[in-house]
Amino acid sequence: MPLRLYNTLTRQVEAFEPLEDGRVTMYTCGPTVYDRAHIGNFRTFLAEDILRRFLRWKGYEVVQVRNLTDVDDRTIHAAVQRGVSLRELTAPFIDAFFEDHDRLGLQRAEYYPRATDYVDRMIDMVEKLVDGGFAYEADGSVYYDISRFPDYGRLAGLENIEVREGERETGDAEYAREDARDFVLWKGGERPEEGDVAVWDSPWGPGRPGWHLECSVMATAHLGQPFDIHSGGVDLIFPHHTNEIAQAEGAQGKPFARHWIHVKHMMLDGRKMSKSENHYFTVGDLLEKGSRPSAIRRLLASGHYRTEINFTLPGLEDATRSLERLLEFRRRLRDGREPEGQALDRLPQLAERALSEWEAALDDDLNLAAAWGALFTLVREANAALDEADGPVRATDADAVLDALASMDRVFGVLELADQETTEVSDDLRRWIEQQLADRAEARQQKDFSRADAIREALAEAGVEVEDTPAGPRWRLVRQS
RNA sequence: GGUGCCGUAGCCAAGUGGACUAAGGCGGGGGCCUGCAAAGCCCCUAUUCGUGGGUUCGAAUCCCACCGGCGCCUCCA
């Protein structure tokens, strides 16, 4: 079945068809590296990761670009404040971004361009826009003349945007715009408060690029023009993406991105996350509280990307539990399969049905909630089927379900993360645990249950959870003591 | 002022005109298993979809009004 995606440009769900057969080009707006990204930022990045993974699951080659914004008011101010260059300021935040990125199991994009490496090309684009009559210079700065771009504001549904009187409080009063709605392409003029951390030479004198320029330039530099998918958070629709379109299309005279995808924000305890109000969590904050990356991923990928997610700690707890159920299910299948085991034809049937419902859900504008539903329905029904068997199940039947699980996880990516989280157990600890279990087995043999329970208690103190199963005791480390 | 979204069980959340006698997760209740547990599994858990009208043979789904929550309108993912 073909994938259908909502396109902000047309305001409807439409069939997605890449420009080039079997190959999808996508540009995903990345973080501004002036600080550590929070989980709200990662909600968006994760939604894009799901899209990337699903496209690959369907057999497409994906070429993804994720920019790292290192030239912007916040990076400049932070660099000036600390007396360092932009590169010095952003290096640790870029490292932190990739650390969290990998911890949440996001697949790496093909390119991670930084604005500071593309200033020359940005200047080229501004020159093209000036030559084409889309931009004008005033006092060493260059502005985009939106009256020359008839389609301006279409993405945001603002074809006839009116600017409210007195609402343009940007601190840019010194700029000589002809029209208040025109936006800056090149910021010239004196800005002593910015020092020399972000000053480049240009045909209009020293200055720095406007923020929107980097994405127009870096996207087309790597993906050509037009390319297939451009995505980001909903807050970027206007003005950022609106201006990107005006720049790229004005400069090249052809369409920029064909399909626009915007991810709704994640709230924290019912309120918008905000750096300035210190109302946010980073991935690191959550890990310090003992959360598992796989559970964070499960929660951030639980809802539809065009629906707000409200992040709460109890919600993360729910996500952890549901993930444990999944892991338990997989363990049950792995432990209970044997080449000559009991035939359970129902398992492959259930697996096949679940997988097709799962795919149909994702085909429908990446309906993640429905896709999880298909997976958990399989869990319940397969568990019920396993209950009916009174011994090991034929391996080929169990494998049909395990394969379906693994296939879905190529997109969900939670099991693969969970598998990386298993705690290392030292040999000493392992020997001690095994000794305790042997003693306990002996006590139980002699029906000395109070001693057996005392040993179980001691193990629990050490963070070891013991479960008795028909095949003997099973233990796992629930926490490092 | 402009513009857009949302309101479904205790909580989270799909479904957006007829197969809905409304997915799925968490929680809760009951049962199975167990020396007892734990874990796990199974079953049950919304006569109803913010409120009031309307359209229709038929509405959670469409229209109107109202109530409540959220977003965007120049540099926040």
UniProtKB/TrEMBL annotation:
According to its UniProt record, the EC number is: 6.1.1.16
Q: Which HAMAP family match?
A: Cys_tRNA_synth (MF_00041)
What taxonomic ancestry is recorded? Answer: Bacteria, Pseudomonadati, Gemmatimonadota, Gemmatimonadia, Candidatus Palauibacterales
Q: What is the gene called?
A: cysS
Q: Which UniProt keywords apply?
A: Aminoacyl-tRNA synthetase, ATP-binding, Cytoplasm, Ligase, Metal-binding, Nucleotide-binding, Protein biosynthesis, Zinc
Q: How does it assemble?
A: Monomer.
Which Gene Ontology molecular-function terms are recorded?
ATP binding; cysteine-tRNA ligase activity; zinc ion binding
- Please name the source species: Candidatus Kutchimonas denitrificans
Pfam families given in the database record = CysS_C, DALR_2, tRNA-synt_1e
Output this protein's name: Cysteine--tRNA ligase
Q: Which NCBIfam families match?
A: cysS (TIGR00435)
Tell me where the sequence motif 'KMSKS' region sits in this chain: 272-276
